[in-house]
Amino acid sequence: MSYRDTGLTIWRTRIAQDFANIFKAFIGTNYLTVSFAFKESGLLLGLIGIAFIVLATAHCCNMIVKCKREVVARIVTNPSSLTGYVSSRLRSISESELERTISYGEVARAVLGRLGSILTTVGLFVTQFGFCVSYFIFIADTLGRVHRYVCVQQNEA
C-alpha cells in the first residue's frame, strides 16, 4: 500500500467522521427542539421561523465558502500580504492542499486578525456547549420519565 492510498483512506475517514459529527450536532439537536418550538409558536409562525433560519443558514454558509476561497486566492497570489495573519505553514503549501486544510479560525484570522480567530473559537465553543446542554436536558427528561414509569410499575406489583 502506498502513502497516497493511506492518505486517501485517512481523508475519507475524516470526511465521514466530520459528517457524522455535524449530522449529530445539527440534525439531532433540531429533532429535540423543533417540535417544542412549533408547539410554543404555532404552525404559521413556526414555518416562517424555520424558513428564516434556513435562508439565514444557507446565506451564511455561502459567505463562509466565498470568504475561504478569497483568503486562499490571496494566500496563493500574494502570500506576503497576509504576513502576521496566517501561519507560515499556510503560505508554503499548494492551493489544492490549502483548500482542504484551512480552518474556520485561520480564515477568520486572515480576514479580521487575532480578534476574528478568538471570536470564531468562542462561537464554536458556545455552539458545541449549547448542543451538549440540550442533549443533557433531553436525557434527564427521558430518564425522569423512565424512572417514574418503573416506580409506578413496582408500586402496582
TrEMBL record:
InterPro entries: AA_transpt_TM. Keywords: Membrane, Transmembrane, Transmembrane helix. GO terms for cellular component: vacuolar membrane. It is a multi-pass membrane protein. It holds the Pfam family Aa_trans. It is found in: Membrane. Residues 17-72, 82-152 form the Amino acid transporter transmembrane domain. GO terms for molecular function: L-amino acid transmembrane transporter activity. The chain crosses the membrane at residues 21-38, 44-65, 118-140. This is Putative proton-coupled amino acid transporter 1.
